[in-house]
Amino acid sequence: MASAAAAPKSPSLPWKTRLLVSLSSVCSDLVTRRNGTLNRRLFRLFDFKSSPNPVKPIHGVLSFDVIVDSSRNLSVRVFTPRSDAPTLPILIFFHGGGFAFLSNASFSYAAVCRRLARRIPAVVLSVDYRLSPEHRFPCQYDDGFDVLRFLDHGNNTIGLLPPNADLSKCFLAGDSAGANLAHHVAVRFSRQKSQFQKVKIIGLISIQPFFGGVKRMESETQLDPGYIVSLKRTDWLWRAFLPEGSDRDHSASNVSGPNAEAIAELEEFPATVVFVAGFDPLKDRQRRYYEWLKESGKKVELIEYPNMIHAFYLFPELPESSAMIDQVRSFVFKCMEA
Ligand SMILES: *[C@@H]1O[C@H](CO)[C@@H](O)[C@H](O)[C@H]1NC(C)=O
Ligand SMILES: *[C@@H]1O[C@H](CO)[C@@H](O)[C@H](O)[C@H]1NC(C)=O
Ligand SMILES: *[C@@H]1O[C@H](CO)[C@@H](O)[C@H](O)[C@H]1NC(C)=O
Ligand SMILES: CC(=O)N[C@H]1CO[C@H](CO)[C@@H](O)[C@@H]1O
Ligand SMILES: CC(=O)N[C@H]1CO[C@H](CO)[C@@H](O)[C@@H]1O
């Protein structure tokens, strides 16, 4: 039965966005091999990089790279806004890319970090965690957690953070695989909170988190293949990331499933905002994540964009992209005032 209020069958996207989305899908299919390895040399041709700008601000934001641990090439790109606010929050940001693609220097992520830094304003640290399949679970989580330890330790932040940056007002943030990573780093931090003297995590910004499970969810089958995300691609990514021999009900991918780590007793788990889009095949899992956080007694809010796709906010030409950044800003202020 047709109804005037029926949801649209496809998102309304400008042709430029459609083109970029198709290109990124073609590219990811070209570089992923059936034997589970990735053609990094080919991928590098598609991964446009942005250089740091430590001297001349771009839209009022400076950026530079800092090495956290040279033995594993762990670095962060720091984005510092020009701001004389008495305190600046710190966003520890994890980029998306299915744990396998992209980096701190990738063009779209550098652009988004700069927008977040300027708009909130906040110091944004984009973490260059190790990638699968060369480095599997839990390397990515270790890298994320070790950045927090680095920030907490001794005098490491001198010259790295401006004097008005406040380590007691840190946020974990990420999109897609980066939001999965942010979740697991938040869990680890909440368990080991007593080891930290300066760093306090007061919020988790979970943008379209990448979760999985053996059993398909309705949105996964109904929307497959979706924009950017398809079952074929996500299955490949989980195989490349999870320990050999484990399935998608592993606690890393299915956080609320049969092997879930209970978080109800983790009092330090931060207040969370989850962003979901109507045309993202992962949306049912992301809603489930929200429900599970709520059932576990956590402070959490859900914000939905019915007409958007996976990774929509990386496309600055979409008005929803700016709207989402404004909502991140409101969330940050709400947590800082709490
Ligand atoms: C996977 O395939 C690529 C290209 O066909 C090949 O170079 C590589 O050695 C293979 N790796 C493994 C582990 O089989
Ligand atoms: C670090 O990166 C350099 C340059 O890309 C590479 O040659 C080196 O093998 C990497 N080191 C480690 C430990 O991965
Ligand atoms: C930090 O720097 C100050 C001044 O240089 C020094 O006295 C102090 O020992 C340093 N702290 C640590 C933990 O390295
Ligand atoms: C994977 C990757 O490209 N990481 C980069 C992050 O940024 C630093 C500094 O520009 C580079 O050295 C890394 O290669
Ligand atoms: C977050 C998430 O994806 N949870 C899923 C874990 O697995 C169960 C059973 O397959 C699903 O119902 C959950 O949605």
TrEMBL record:
InterPro entries membership: AB_hydrolase_3, AB_hydrolase_fold, Carboxylest/Gibb_receptor, Lipase_GDXG_HIS_AS
UniProt entry keywords in alphabetical sequence: Hydrolase
Transmembrane helix among keywords: no
Lineage: superkingdom: Eukaryota
Alpha/beta hydrolase fold-3 domain span: 91-313
A single GO BP: pollen tube growth
GO molecular function, one term: carboxylic ester hydrolase activity
Record has Hydrolase as a keyword: yes
Family: Belongs to the 'GDXG' lipolytic enzyme family.
Protein name: Probable carboxylesterase 18
Originating gene: LOC111498022
